[in-house]
Amino acid sequence: MKKVVVRLKWINQAQFAGFYIAKEKGYYKDAGLDVDIRPGGSDFPSVQMVSSGSEDFGVTGADQILMSREKGAPVVALSVIYRSTPFVLFTLKSSGITSMKDLEGQKVGVKLGGNEELTYRAMVNKAGVKAKSISEMPVKFDLSPLLTGQVKAWPGYVINEVIAAQEQGEEVNVIYPSDYGINFYADTLFTTEKMIQKDPETVKGFVQATMKGWDYAINHPDEAAQVTVQYGDQLDIAHETKMMNASIPLLEADKGPLGTMEESEWSTLQDSLIDVGFLKKKQDLTAAFTNEFIQP
Questions:
Q1: Based on CB atoms within 10 Å of each CB, which residue in 3, 44, 65, 287 is the most buried?
Q2: Is residue 79 within 8 Å of 260, Cβ to Cβ?
Q3: How many CA atoms within 13 Å lie on the side-chain side of 22?
Q4: pTM of the model
């Protein structure tokens, strides 16, 4: 059994159920792999952990792949997990705010520095809203500023924070990026150019076992949530089940096998990154992603 490490994008939760399923169902084992699944977060940024060579695979936003390549990190996307972004802006129903235009003159929570900020700024651009008309407040993960009225809109995941607000008895209005023609690839499985060159068989085995895990999770969401809670100390089965079910439409492929990526989507993402100043110049997309390991 070959030992490999995968570093997730965030803490253990149903957002990564496919990985846990692949391990628990023996899909990794069948591929000859002993996989160590490690939670990520700001203290364990997956791109740095993998590009340094200390870990083998990681999950990050597709935007981070392009931004990291510009900075010289030779990372390559292997499959897209969330084909549609889970990111949304949402407001309390009582605010009456239902669109980007309604945010003019309001205070809005913004998560700075990543996929969330990029998507938010692209939504502002596409909606024709004057950015200066919105008062921005940097926020983290505690929903209190929204619930207490400090801010009128919150940046979060429809599969997580929206559910958390509803669990606290709040009715919410959700503003989707897709309403403004924006659909960026989100969680993306990646490795390094060196790993692909050195050990393509391991890469292939890992990618295919992972996508098999995701396929199972999509078709058995309740079981996927039950497996997920074994990976976290304080995970709530009801919340994880809701998260898994809310993820399914964002995970499913409209065409081609699960995980398949299209150059047109990467190109759109890249143009948006350049528009908002996150990327200085165009990257070679043919080097930034590959579908070759998804096909059996």
A1: 65
A2: yes
A3: 24
A4: 0.92
